[in-house]
Amino acid sequence: MSQADRERWNGRYREQAGASEPSRFLQSLADRLPSGGRALDVAGGPGHDSLWLARRGLEVTLVDVSDVALERAAAVAREAGLPLRCERVDLETEPLPSGPHALVLCLNFLWRPLFAAFPRVLAPGGLLVFAQPTRSNLQRNPHPSARFLLEDGELPGLLRGLEVVSYTEGWTEEGRHEARLVATLRP
Predict the structure, then answer these.
(1) What is the pLDDT of residues 25-55, one digit of tens each?
(2) Has residue 19 got a pLDDT over 60?
(3) 109 torsion bin: left (phi>0), alpha (psi -120 to 50), beta (else)
(4) For 104, what's the count of Cα atoms within 13 Å in the CB-facing half-sphere?
(5) Burial class of residue 181 in the structure, from the number of CB atoms within 10 Å of its CB (0-12 exposed, 13-18 middle, 19+ buried)
(6) Torsion, CA 64, CA 114, CA 144, CA 22, rounded to 10
């Protein structure tokens, strides 16, 4: 990712107001998620999901390209007394932090080469939780652009070395057409 892209993300996070709720999709999985161990939030922005996971007892590492997003997440974590490790990582050129992780979360970020890395950072029995809009999303929403969308039905075929636990694709309550997946690394 170029410095210009990093600055674009920094500007976007500077403009965003205050706190936001964690993903409804993530919250809907609460009973399936581990209650302890290490978690990795990939491209997690200002950490809404990371903070929710930390409150549940997970040791969370948040990675993102935006300094502003990571600083915001770290400040909220300090204020709440939550442990949160924040790392600036350009996921297009740098590797994921090493595992093993009981949970890897990747919501609203698509870099297809990451699918080869997910099994390497998951613990045996660990979960990958992934959601991304598909091309059908453009029927109702101009963003994200086609460059950042999955093809309809593409997601399960991207998995290597993981077993699908659940997979859905369709319109969400938020009005987006998304592919949503939970997969596991079998012991």
Answers:
(1) 999 999 999 999 999 999 999 999 999 999 9
(2) no
(3) beta
(4) 27
(5) buried
(6) -50
Rounded-to-integer distance, Cα 178 and Cα 144, Å: 12
The CA–CA distances, whole Å, from 170 to 68, 92, 103, 144, 167 equal 32, 27, 24, 16, 10
Q: What is the dihedral of CA 7, 63, 132, 166, to 10 degrees?
A: 180
- For the stretch 93-137, pLDDT in tens is 999 999 999 999 999 999 999 999 999 999 999 999 999 999 999
Half-sphere exposure of residue 40: CA atoms within 13 angstroms, side-chain side: 29
Instruction: Show me where the domains of the chain are located.
Output: 3-184
Q: Was domain 3-184 assigned CATH 1.25.40.10?
A: no
Note the pLDDT of residue 3: 72
pTM attached to this predicted model: 0.92
Cis peptide, bond prior to residue 187, ω within 30 of zero? no
